[in-house]
Write a structure and sequence with these properties.
With 315 residues, the protein is mostly beta strands. The protein is 7% helix and 31% strand. It has helices spanning 24-38, 212-215, 285-288; strands at residues 43-49, 52-54, 57-61, 65-70, 102-106, 111-116, 125-131, 144-150, 156-161, 168-169, 174-178, 187-190, 196-197, 202-207, 220-222, 235-239, 245-249, 261-262, 265-266, 270-274, 292-296.
Length: 315
């Protein structure tokens, strides 16, 4: 966790120094975040034996681990996207080797995967189907990301929306940034103690070196490096105080190049605003990428307020 002043009297657009006084709280928070993905994860064992993978077919959930253990022969695991272009992400343990070895991979991206042993590719293959974790959040009950600004230079911001009909504490919730395909957090922002969002209100986190129009609506302006120091190829995750994943932009563990496509735009050089019909966060980016209205770069006019069908829901 970045070292933040957690006193309730923090001021609007306060600039925090994320470099100063890194304490054991950071280690604890990052460890807790990592465990949130693993708390309900399962390890699946595959034996590499007698020129085969056993079992050769698996159905698993996002966050599960597959462990391959070689018993005999000269083999490898190759699930690279250069070999299998339709794989959602690459995995593998390099060149074939003899003796005994173990290789583990945590699947964080849903989809269908193929893999092979390179020296025996004509007959030694495997497949894995990874299903997305379903969110049990009831619509209009939990915070979600309502706006994403990836503008020029440091014009970056995230907006969180309270879809409920009453003020709601956001203290202890976390925004986490995963840069360039990282599977561990690059930066985090933990909402300070005493922070709440009004009914159908928003909370805006902006880059402290952003444009005046962006900073004018920011509740927190955050010095570099920070959770809003993102580019279009970085994933952003919203977590509850109990480390439940509530919302995701992009795919953790995947570097898409320069961006992910979103409607007529992308996650770089555009402003994305959650569509009015969206009433909760989305954990499957294949669906999430369809949930945004797209605006030109450096559009800040809607930042600081959000329109949602949740506003029609009684408190």
């Amino acid at each position: 966790m970045l070292n933040l002043d957690l006193t309730p009297s923090y001021s609007k657009r306060r600039i925090f120094d994320p470099i100063k006084d890194r304490t054991m709280k950071k280690i604890y928070t990052l460890a807790a975040f990592a465990l949130s993905f693993l708390a309900f994860a399962t390890n699946h064992a595959v034996s590499v034996v007698n020129n085969s993978y056993s079992p050769a077919t698996l159905a698993i959930a996002v966050g599960d681990t597959v462990t391959w253990t070689q018993v005999n022969g000269v083999h490898n695991v190759n699930g690279s996207t250069s070999t299998f272009a339709s794989n959602p992400a690459s995995f593998g343990n390099g060149a074939a080797a003899g003796g005994t070895w173990t290789y583990q991979y945590v699947f964080t991206v849903p989809g269908s995967y193929q893999y092979q042993c390179d020296p025996h590719a004509s007959f030694m293959t495997g497949s894995i189907t990874v299903t997305a974790a379903a969110t049990s959040v009831t619509p209009c009950t939990e915070f979600f990301i309502s706006e994403y600004v990836e503008g020029s230079s440091n014009n970056k911001a995230l907006e969180i929306y309270n879809p409920t009909g009453a003020a709601k504490s956001i203290a202890g919730y976390t925004l986490a940034l995963f840069s360039n395909g990282a599977t561990t957090t690059t930066n985090t922002f933990v909402f300070p103690a005493g922070t709440s969002i009004a009914a159908h209100g928003t909370y805006v986190i902006a880059h402290a070196q952003g444009a005046a129009g962006l900073l004018a609506v920011a509740d927190t302006a955050y010095a570099y490096p920070n959770v809003v120091s993102f580019n279009g190829d970085d994933a952003v995750v919203l977590l509850s105080p109990t480390n439940d994943t509530l919302d995701i932009i992009g795919i953790v563990g995947v570097d898409p190049g320069s961006n992910w496509t979103v409607g007529s735009g992308a996650t770089n050089e555009y402003t994305l605003v959650r569509k009015v019909a969206i009433e909760k966060g989305q954990l499957d980016w294949a669906i999430g990428a369809t949930e945004w209205d797209v605006y030109p770069q450096n559009t800040f006019t809607q930042l600081g307020a959000h329109t949602s069908n949740c506003a029609n829901t009684p408190p």
